C-alpha cells in the first residue's frame, strides 16, 4: 500500500456499525482533485487573469487606537498608474457585521475607517492602480494624521470601569447576549457542590492569537460582466455568505453579484470573514475594470483575523474518589476591535463546557471582549480548541492532586448516552469511554478490568 | 529604467516576453506566459510554493529578478507531465494521497524533481532536507515524504525495465 | 543537563455543525442524456475533500460507479445554497443533501427503467456497475447510458433530484444557556510522548497515539489525511504558533513564515492513529464532522506530557523553550527555598 491508512477498529460498537452492503462508502476512492493539483491545472482564484486587471492595496492604520484628524490623498493620487483612492465615502453602506445575516447585531465595523481606528492595520484607504507596484506606492504615500487615544489590550483590563472604550457601536467593551453581559451556562448548584466537595481546585489558562496560515492568502478577483453584474472569483469558505454580505455593503440587489469559488488553498476558518470582496467590488465599479485584491503574507499574518486569545479560570469541586461534582468556568475571549464571528464562537464555547464529562453542577460565564487588536474570528476548532487545552490540562492537574491515573479519572467522569449536558441536551452517540480505552490499548497504558469493561452505552463500573 | 525583452527556454520551448524592470520570474511565468502552476504563497521566499527549476536548480521564483536568468532554462510543473501522462513524482503524489488543498503541491513536486534528478536513491533524510523550505499547512508532511520516496522507487524500477 | 521523557493524556469531544440561525445546505442532481449524474452545489473545498465525498455519497445512493458522477461547485449562479465550509459541517450537511437529492433521482431512474424493461420498479436493483437489473434475472437489465438517453428522447422524463439538509435554528435561553446547537459529537483521545531538553527548553514530541471516533469513515484514506494533518496542526499550536508572542503586548508579531514557526518535516513525531465508528443517527451513512476536532487533543496531551517529563506546568500556550526554561528556573527556586 502506497498511502497512509489509519486502521478502522471493528470491535467497538460492532452491533451498531453495520455498513456491509455499501459499495463506495467506506472504500478508499482517489481524490477527484488530485490530478489537477499534481499537474498545476487546478484553478485557484488568483490564476484568473482577465485583461486590464487593476490592483488594490490598502493603506492601513499605523496606530492601535486613534482619532483620524486628517487624510491627505494628494501624493498617492500623483503616483503614476494610480487610478483611484477609495475612502469610506465611496462605500455605499460602510458599516457592517458579517453575522447580521443570522440576526446578530449591531453593525460595528467600517469597511474603511471613518473618524477613528481601533487596531493596528485597520484599513483606511484603498488604492487602485494599473500595477501592483503602483498600488503599493500609492498606499505608502497616503498621509494620515492621528490623534492618539489610549489603547487597551488585556481582556480583564478592558472590562474594568474606566477602561478606554474600544468600539462605540457596542457602547461597552463586551458583546451583550440578550441583556446579559456574557453567554451564561447555569446548571445545578455549583456553590453547593463546592461546599460539600473534598477538594476545590482552581487554575488559570491562557492562549495567544494563532494565525490560520493557509498557504494561499485571502483574496479575490472581481470582473465586471457584459450584463452589468460582477463576477467575483474568491477563495471564500462560504460563497453565499460572502455574496449576501457584499450585496448589503454595496447596496445592490443580491443578483447583481456572482461568486465563483470552491477551490481554496487552505482555509482553516480564516476565509469565513468578508474582508476583501466588498472593497474590491467598489473598486471594480468605480473603475469599470477587473480588480484584484489579495492579502500579502504580512497582512495575512498580522491583519487577517486570527484564532482568538482566550483566558479561562476553571474551578472544580472534586470528591476523594475522583468524581467531579461541580465545575465553574469564567472564559474571556479576546475578540479584538470588532465582533466578526466572535459572538457565535463564544456561544459555541459555552455549549462545549464543561467538556465531555458528566458533571451535575456547572456554572459558566463566557465573555466576548473587545480590545484594540486585530479582530479575531473563526479558526479550526472555533470556541473549542483552547477550551480543550484548559479543560484537559485541568483534568491532568486534578488527577495529579488526587494521585489518580489520568485516564481512570476521565473514564470515571466521562459522559455517556443519556447524560444531560450542561446546556440541557441529552447526550447520544457518545464514545469518549471507547476512544480512551483504545488509546490506552494502543499506547500500552494498562487499565484495570473494571475500567476496560466500561461502556458509553451502559453505567457499568460507575 | 525601461521594460525589456527577455528570452528564456521554458519547459523546452523558446519564449520571449516583455518584462517590467525588477519583474520577478514568478510574475513573468504567471502573467506573461500564462503558466500558473507556480503559486504566490508569500512573495518572501519562505514558503516554496513558487519553486521552479532554473537550469536544473530549485529556486523560489518570487525572489528571482527575471533579467538575472535571461537566456536560461526554466522548468515548471506544466513541463513535468509528457503528453498528458503523469511522471513518477506526480503519480506518486496522487497515489500516496499527498495532496489536500493542492496549493503547495507544485512547489513540492518541483523540489522533488530536482532531488531525484541528482539523487535517484534518496534516503528519508534527503527527502526531508529537500522539502524543508516548502510549507504545507494541511498534510503534516508525512504523505509528501512518502510520495517522494515512492516516486524514487518507481523511477529506479522504470530505469531497470528500460 | 538531561533529556527528560514524559507522557500526557487528553480526551475530547467535538460538535458537528453549529447552528444559531438555521443551518441548511442544498444539492441538486440531474442526469445528462448519456448517464452522467451532475451534482450541483455551492459548497467549498478547502482541501478537506468535499468534492470527492459528495461524489461518493451520490454514487452510493444512486447505486452507480464513481465514474458516472461529476460534482459542479461552487458557482452561486448555478449551485443551490450552502452555508459554507466551517464548523465541521460540510460532510454532514452536504452529504445528507446529496443523499436526499440522489435518492429522488434514483427513484425516477428506477421508474424509467421499469418502463423501459416493462417490469415493476420495486423489482429493480443496482449493483454499482452501471446496470439497473431485475432482481434475480440478471440478463434483464439496462445500462444507465442507454436508460438516460431513452428517458430524454423516448419517455420524456428528467432523471433528477433535489436535496436539502436543515438543522433548525436554536436560540439559547439567555438565563441558563439551554440550547441545541449541534447535530452529533465526534470523539478523540491522544497520548503524547515528549522529550524535554532541560538545558535548552526545547520540547520534542516523539510519539502521538490517537484514537478517533468519527461515526463513519466515508473514505478511510481521506479520513487519515484529516486526522494526521490535524494532529500535526495541534502539535504546531502547542509548541510554536502565535501572532503575538508576548500577548497581551502587541510587539514582536511575526510577518512571515520565517518568524511564524511551525514544525517542518524533520520535526514529526511517530503517529499511530485508529478510527472508531459509531454511526450517527443523523449523519450521512453515519458520518460525523471531523475536520476540526483532530487538532484539539494533542495540545493538552503535550502540556500534560511536559509536566510529566520535567514537572513544569505550562498553562499558557504555546509551550516555547522560553516558557519551559522559566518553569524549570521557578522549580529550582522553589527547591532552594
TrEMBL record, chain A:
Pfam families: Ald_Xan_dh_C (PF01315), MoCoBD_1 (PF02738). GO terms for molecular function: iron ion binding; oxidoreductase activity. It comes from Nonomuraea fuscirosea. Keywords: Molybdenum, Oxidoreductase. Residues 39-150 form the Aldehyde oxidase/xanthine dehydrogenase a/b hammerhead domain. This is Aldehyde oxidase/xanthine dehydrogenase-like protein.
TrEMBL record, chain B:
Keywords: 2Fe-2S, Iron, Iron-sulfur, Metal-binding, Oxidoreductase. Gene3D superfamilies: 3.10.20.30, [2Fe-2S]-binding domain (1.10.150.120). The keyword Lipid metabolism does not apply. PROSITE patterns: 2FE2S_FER_1, 2FE2S_FER_2. It holds the Pfam family Fer2. One of its GO terms (molecular function) is 2 iron, 2 sulfur cluster binding. SUPFAM superfamilies: 2Fe-2S ferredoxin-like, CO dehydrogenase ISP C-domain like. Residues 4-80 form the 2Fe-2S ferredoxin-type domain. This is Carbon-monoxide dehydrogenase small subunit. It comes from Nonomuraea fuscirosea. The lineage of its organism: Bacteria, Bacillati, Actinomycetota, Actinomycetes, Streptosporangiales.
UniProtKB/TrEMBL annotation, chain C:
Coiled coil: none annotated. One of its GO terms (molecular function) is oxidoreductase activity. This is Molybdopterin-binding aldehyde dehydrogenase-like protein. Residues 3-269 form the Aldehyde oxidase/xanthine dehydrogenase second molybdopterin binding domain. InterPro entries: AldOxase/xan_DH_MoCoBD2, AldOxase/xan_DH_Mopterin-bd_sf, N-heterocyclic_Hydroxylase. It comes from Nonomuraea fuscirosea.
Amino acid at each position: 500500500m502506497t498511502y497512509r491508512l489509519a486502521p478502522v477498529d471493528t470491535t467497538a460498537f460492532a452491533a451498531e456499525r453495520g455498513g456491509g452492503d455499501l459499495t463506495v462508502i467506506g472504500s478508499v476512492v482517489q481524490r477527484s482533485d488530485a490530478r489537477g493539483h499534481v499537474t498545476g491545472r487546478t484553478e485557484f482564484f488568483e490564476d484568473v487573469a482577465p485583461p486590464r486587471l487593476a490592483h488594490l492595496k490598502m493603506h492601513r492604520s499605523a496606530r492601535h487606537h486613534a482619532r483620524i484628524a486628517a487624510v491627505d490623498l494628494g501624493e498617492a493620487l500623483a503616483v503614476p498608474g494610480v487610478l483611484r483612492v477609495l475612502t469610506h465615502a465611496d462605500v455605499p453602506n460602510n458599516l457592517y457585521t458579517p453575522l447580521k445575516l443570522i440576526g446578530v447585531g449591531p453593525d460595528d465595523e467600517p469597511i474603511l475607517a471613518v473618524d477613528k481606528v481601533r487596531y493596528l492595520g485597520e484599513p483606511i484607504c484603498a488604492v487602485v492602480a494599473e500595477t501592483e507596484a503602483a498600488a503599493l506606492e500609492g498606499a505608502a504615500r497616503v498621509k494620515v494624521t492621528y490623534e492618539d487615544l489610549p489603547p487597551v489590550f488585556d481582556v480583564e483590563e478592558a472590562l474594568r470601569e474606566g477602561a478606554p472604550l474600544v468600539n462605540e457601536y457596542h457602547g461597552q467593551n463586551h458583546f451583550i447576549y440578550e441583556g446579559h453581559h456574557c453567554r451564561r451556562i447555569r446548571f445545578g448548584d455549583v456553590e453547593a457542590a463546592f461546599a460539600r466537595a473534598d477538594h476545590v481546585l482552581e487554575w488559570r489558562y491562557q492562549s495567544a492569537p494563532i494565525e490560520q496560515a493557509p498557504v494561499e492568502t485571502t483574496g479575490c478577483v472581481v470582473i465586471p460582466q457584459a450584463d452589468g453584474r460582477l463576477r467575483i472569483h474568491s477563495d471564500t469558505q462560504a460563497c453565499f455568505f460572502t455574496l449576501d454580505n457584499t450585496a448589503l455593503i454595496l447596496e445592490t440587489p443580491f443578483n447583481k453579484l456572482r461568486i465563483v469559488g470552491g477551490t481554496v488553498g487552505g482555509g482553516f476558518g480564516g476565509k469565513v470573514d468578508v474582508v476583501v470582496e466588498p472593497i474590491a467590488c467598489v473598486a471594480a465599479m468605480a473603475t469599470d475594470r477587473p480588480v484584484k485584491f489579495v492579502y500579502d503574507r504580512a497582512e495575512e499574518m498580522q491583519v487577517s483575523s486570527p484564532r482568538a486569545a482566550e483566558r479561562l479560570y476553571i474551578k472544580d469541586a472534586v470528591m476523594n474518589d475522583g468524581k467531579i461534582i461541580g465545575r465553574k468556568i469564567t472564559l474571556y475571549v479576546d475578540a479584538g476591535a470588532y465582533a466578526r464571528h466572535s459572538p457565535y464562537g463564544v456561544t459555541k464555547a459555552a455549549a462545549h463546557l464543561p467538556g465531555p464529562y458528566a458533571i451535575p453542577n456547572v456554572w459558566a460565564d463566557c465573555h466576548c471582549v473587545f480590545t484594540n487588536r486585530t479582530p479575531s474570528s473563526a479558526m479550526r476548532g472555533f470556541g473549542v480548541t483552547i477550551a480543550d487545552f484548559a479543560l484537559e490540562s485541568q483534568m491532568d492537574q486534578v488527577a495529579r492532586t488526587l494521585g489518580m491515573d489520568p485516564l481512570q479519572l476521565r473514564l470515571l467522569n466521562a459522559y455517556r448516552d443519556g447524560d444531560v449536558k450542561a446546556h440541557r441536551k441529552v447526550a447520544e452517540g457518545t464514545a469518549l469511554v471507547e476512544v480512551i480505552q483504545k488509546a490506552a490499548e494502543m499506547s500500552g497504558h494498562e487499565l484495570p478490568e473494571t475500567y476496560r469493561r466500561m461502556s458509553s452505552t451502559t453505567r457499568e463500573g460507575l | 529604467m525601461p521594460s525589456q525583452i527577455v528570452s528564456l527556454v521554458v519547459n523546452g520551448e523558446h519564449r520571449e516576453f516583455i518584462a517590467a524592470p525588477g519583474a520577478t520570474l514568478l510574475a513573468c511565468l504567471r502573467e506573461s506566459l500564462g503558466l500558473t502552476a507556480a503559486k504566490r504563497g508569500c512573495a518572501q521566499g519562505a514558503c516554496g510554493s513558487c519553486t521552479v527549476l532554473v537550469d536544473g536548480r530549485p529556486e523560489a521564483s518570487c525572489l528571482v529578478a527575471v533579467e538575472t536568468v535571461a537566456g536560461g532554462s526554466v522548468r515548471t510543473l506544466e513541463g513535468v507531465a509528457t503528453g498528458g501522462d503523469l511522471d513518477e513524482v506526480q503519480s506518486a503524489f496522487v497515489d500516496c494521497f499527498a495532496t489536500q488543498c493542492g496549493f503547495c503541491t507544485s512547489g513540492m513536486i518541483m523540489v522533488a524533481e530536482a532531488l531525484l534528478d541528482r539523487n535517484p536513491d534518496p534516503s528519508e533524510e534527503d527527502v526531508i532536507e529537500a522539502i524543508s523550505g516548502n510549507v504545507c499547512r494541511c498534510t503534516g508532511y508525512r504523505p509528501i515524504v512518502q510520495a517522494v520516496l515512492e516516486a524514487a522507487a518507481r523511477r529506479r524500477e522504470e530505469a531497470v525495465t528500460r | 543537563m538531561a533529556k527528560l521523557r514524559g507522557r500526557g493524556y487528553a480526551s475530547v469531544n467535538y460538535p458537528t455543525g453549529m447552528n444559531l440561525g438555521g443551518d441548511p445546505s442544498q444539492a441538486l442532481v440531474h442526469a445528462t442524456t448519456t448517464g452522467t449524474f451532475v451534482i450541483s452545489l455551492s459548497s467549498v473545498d478547502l482541501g478537506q475533500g468535499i468534492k470527492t465525498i459528495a461524489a461518493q455519497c451520490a454514487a452510493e445512493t444512486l447505486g452507480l460507479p464513481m465514474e458516472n458522477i461529476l460534482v459542479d461547485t461552487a458557482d452561486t449562479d448555478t449551485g443551490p445554497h450552502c452555508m459554507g465550509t466551517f464548523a465541521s459541517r460540510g460532510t454532514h450537511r452536504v452529504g445528507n443533501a446529496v443523499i436526499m437529492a440522489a435518492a429522488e433521482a434514483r427513484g425516477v431512474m428506477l421508474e424509467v427503467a421499469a418502463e423501459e424493461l416493462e417490469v415493476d420498479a420495486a423489482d429493480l436493483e443496482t449493483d454499482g456497475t452501471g446496470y439497473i437489473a431485475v432482481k434475480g434475472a440478471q440478463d434483464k437489465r439496462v445500462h444507465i447510458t442507454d436508460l438516460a438517453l431513452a428517458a430524454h428522447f423516448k419517455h420524456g422524463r428528467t432523471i433528477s433530484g433535489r436535496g436539502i439538509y436543515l438543522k433548525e435554528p436554536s436560540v439559547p435561553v439567555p438565563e441558563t444557556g439551554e440550547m441545541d446547537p449541534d447535530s452529533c459529537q465526534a470523539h478523540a483521545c491522544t497520548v503524547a510522548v515528549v522529550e524535554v531538553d532541560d538545558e535548552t527548553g526545547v520540547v520534542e514530541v516523539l510519539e502521538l497515539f490517537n484514537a478517533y471516533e468519527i461515526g463513519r469513515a466515508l473514505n478511510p484514506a481521506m479520513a487519515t489525511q484529516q486526522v494526521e494533518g490535524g494532529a500535526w496542526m495541534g502539535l504546531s499550536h502547542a509548541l510554536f504558533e502565535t501572532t503575538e508572542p508576548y500577548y497581551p503586548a502587541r510587539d514582536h508579531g511575526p510577518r512571515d513564515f520565517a518568524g511564524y514557526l511551525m514544525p517542518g518535516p524533520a520535526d514529526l513525531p511517530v503517529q499511530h492513529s485508529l478510527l472508531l465508528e459509531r454511526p450517527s443517527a443523523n449523519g450521512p451513512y453515519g458520518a460525523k464532522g471531523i475536520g476540526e476536532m483532530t487538532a484539539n487533543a494533542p495540545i493538552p496531551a503535550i502540556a500534560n506530557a511536559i509536566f510529566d517529563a520535567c514537572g513544569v506546568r505550562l498553562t499558557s500556550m504555546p509551550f516555547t523553550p522560553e516558557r519551559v526554561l522559566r518553569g524549570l528556573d521557578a522549580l529550582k527556586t522553589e527547591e532552594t527555598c
